[in-house]
UniProtKB/TrEMBL annotation:
Name listed for the protein in its UniProt record: VOC domain-containing protein
Superkingdom as given in the UniProt entry: Bacteria
Gene3D superfamilies (alphabetical): 2,3-Dihydroxybiphenyl 1,2-Dioxygenase, domain 1 (3.10.180.10)
One family name in Pfam for this protein: Glyoxalase
Domain VOC, chain residue ranges per copy: 5-124
Source species: Arthrobacter globiformis (strain ATCC 8010 / DSM 20124 / JCM 1332 / NBRC 12137 / NCIMB 8907 / NRRL B-2979 / 168)
């Protein structure tokens, strides 16, 4: 049943106005409908994600959502030009260089949104 059902990510936001500004100004996304309590955004192929108000925002220490891209370097450069700051990691099995990790699985880059949520870009080989 679920394999044929659309999936939508859900992200927490402590400050909805700040989050809306970040997603609009830094990522170039507009909410599907105006709202104060929740904001729904649509991305490629009909995928969506919801931002909702909670004081728990920014407490997860794992990647919460990611975009699949055909060119991580291009997208990192574009987002940096908008003020997005990419994380640098150096863990066993994961090391970024200039914000991008490369492995047999592909290339990936991570950044924080205005609410402390960890987001990613991923390029398959």
């Amino acid at each position: 049943m679920l394999r044929d059902t659309e999936v939508a990510a859900v992200l927490p936001a402590k400050d909805m106005n700040r989050a809306k500004d970040f997603y609009r100004d830094k990522l170039g996304l507009e909410p599907m409908e105006p709202g104060d309590d929740n904001l729904m955004f649509q991305c490629g192929n009909g995928t969506r994600f919801l931002l909702y108000q909670t004081d728990n925002a920014g407490t997860a220490r794992n990647t919460q959502m990611g975009w699949v891209t055909d060119d991580v370097e291009r997208d990192v450069q574009d987002l940096r030009s908008r003020g997005v700051v990419f994380e640098e990691y150096d863990f066993p099995g994961l090391k970024t260089e200039n914000g991008i990790a490369t492995s047999d699985a592909g290339k990936a880059a991570w950044f924080l949104d205005s609410e402390g949520n960890i987001l990613s870009l991923f390029e398959r080989p």
